Protein: Heat shock protein Hsp20
Organism: Halobiforma nitratireducens JCM 10879
Amino acid sequence: MSALRDALRDLSEDVFFDLLESDDAYLLVVDVPGVTADSIDVTVEEGTLSIDGRREKDREIPGEYQYIEENRSLFFDVSLPVPDDAVAGNAQSRVERGVLELTLPKRTGGETTIEVTDDSVSNADSASASERDADTASGIDADEPTADDADAEPR
């Protein structure tokens, strides 16, 4: 996430934003005055989040007036890195009253347990099974005490 944070810090001072984080997602809130859902495009490609917006004129200018200077940009074009732990394909966005809210869910950090087998135990089990099979074939009952068992010390 530090790459995203650094990229946001490098934006022009004219861009107002908040970046929030929870256990489940990132929430990027960006002021985009005059922009509507129809005049903004939010895309993610190859780990880069692109926000392209066009401000629509607020109102008609009376006929006798003309713009001499406009202090608000007509375009909003930002490219930001997507955090490594974010799932960009599940991102959601909405714009309301000139404020864009973009939610980037995080990957579930569920722990995966990998079973570890011990080949030496498997081989010993196989050898014991083979001995039982041989005893059964020769008519020896493994559950009956043998002469060797009588000499053995109790455990």
Remarks:
- The radius of gyration is 34 Å.
- The chain has a mean pLDDT of 79.
- Helices lie at 2-9, 119-138, 147-151.
